[in-house]
Amino acid sequence: MSTAPSRVFAARLVGLPIFDPQGDQVGKVRDLVVAIRSETSQPRVLGMVGEVFGRRRIFVPMTRVTNIDAGQVYTTGLLNMRRFEQRSTETLVMGELLDRKVTITTTGVQGTVYDVGMEQARNRDWVLSRVAVQEPAKGLRRRGQTHVVEWGEVEGLTRREPAQAATQLIHALNELRPADAASVIHDLPPERRTAVVAALTDERLADVLEELPEEDQVEILGNLADERAADVLEEMDPDDAADLIAELPPETAEVLLELMEPDEAEDVKRLMAYVENTAGAMMTSEPVILGPDATVADALAHVRNPDLTPALAALVYVCRPPLETPTGRFLGVAHIQRLLREPPSSLVAGVLDESMENLRSEATIDEVAAHLATYNLVAAPVVDENGHLIGAVTVDDLLDHMLPENWRDRAVRSG
Questions:
Q1: Domain annotation covers residue 90
Q2: What's in the GO CC field (predicted)?
Q3: Domain end marker among 111, 129, 155
């Protein structure tokens, strides 16, 4: 292994791209696999859990890793594409070691593990050599004091806890994009997943749920108290919430819809009423909608919202009041690219694209795909028979419905 740093901390590895010798990205780091034999001897790092395209988890032996630097991991390129299955003698650093309660034997300080450092031994094996421990917060402090000590100076690392907290793991997950955090949560042991879900905020859990396979979504939501499940559904995009509720038992769906805020529930019910795999069923009811008196500056301020996906931020939909779906008369769309070329004080209504037709709610998946391709769009308005905007279909909505069921958890072809 050449030019590798002397010590690498695990939490900084998660999410790093994995490259082959030609410089092509083949996946991302998801966790470290170690063999812990005792609390005195440094555990050997067996390898990494890598996620290759298609969300397949594979095992990347450390013998295949040629270099680790601040932003990437390089391998020999010879990777076994067989799905990773954890053995009973193996421990996942992110999934199982973080948040473990420990005691620093030299000082008696108690705390939880928030990271571990690995380095190469003289025989070139990678081992866990350092443990980062955080004390509980005291007084007005938001966080307790931290200590980085030798592996052999910590007691409790081999003890499995039935009710292990998830504070440090949550901190690490919050640094990841929702899709990456969902991948980590998908592979957690059941008790750890339960702890993580309990500790996530409703908004963050909603973001993660939207990226999980349907089975995981239904299982996680089913394990929540009804009130919290309804709160999480309110935080989800209406189209994603509608898809998830449709997978629940009818009696459960009815209870959750009753517990949701009336306006949020109404949006979801409206989407659920459309025929499956049509524009109406896959659209979002919350695109960026402005009135005809809005300026270009107003439009640019709205599309800067970091919560918008790139596809939703690509178009501004101009309508007569009311400006919530179903709106007043739909006037047209303005492309973000065009808005960037216009004076900020000019009206959005003056730069509408009048060259394209609108989608109807009954349009099929093939018709939606053809429409987006014809007009080179990443999003398109859906308008009812009376000329009111009822939603917008984005290319990511379309792909979600065109790809095979549970595509998020399907294996890629190894050939």
A1: no
A2: membrane
A3: 155
Say how far apart CA 314 and CA 308 lie, in whole Å.
10
More confidently predicted of 140 and 60: 60
Residue 5's pLDDT is 55
pLDDT of residue 392: 97
pLDDT, position 141: 65
CATH of the domain at 190: 1.25.60.10
Rounded Cα gap, residues 318 and 94, in angstroms? 47
pLDDT number for residue 198:
93
Q: What pLDDT score was predicted for residue 3?
A: 46
Which residue is associated with the tokens 């595509």? 407
Does 270 lie in the same domain as 176?
yes
297 and 245 fall within a common domain:
no
Q: How far apart are CA 64 and CA 160, in angstroms?
A: 30
- Cβ-count burial of 214 within 10 angstroms (0-12 exposed, 13-18 middle, 19+ buried)? middle
pLDDT tens digits for range 365-408? 999 999 999 999 999 999 999 999 999 999 998 998 888 765 55
The b-or-e profile of 262-301 (16+ CB within 10 A means b, else e) is eebbebbebbbebeeebbbbbbbbbbbbbbbebbbeebbe
- The structural domain count of the chain equals 4
Counting Cβ atoms within 10 Å, is residue 70 exposed (0-12), middle (13-18) or buried (19+)? exposed
Cα 291 to Cα 316: distance, rounded to the nearest angstrom: 10
Indicate whether 197 and 110 sit together in one domain.
no
Lowest mean pLDDT among 31-40, 42-51, 405-414: 405-414
> How far apart are the C-alpha atoms of 185 and 400, rounded to whole Å?
20
Using a pLDDT cut of 90, give the percent of the chain over it: 66
Which one has a higher pLDDT value, 413 or 56? 56
Q: Does 48 fall in a domain?
A: yes
CB 169 within 8 A of CB 192: yes
Domain ranges, residue 107: 95-155
pLDDT in tens, 15-39: 899 999 888 999 999 999 999 988 8
- Inter-CA distances, 196 with 25, 306, 332, Å: 29, 24, 44
Q: Residue 320 is inside which H or E element, if any?
A: none
CATH code assigned at 353: 3.10.580.10
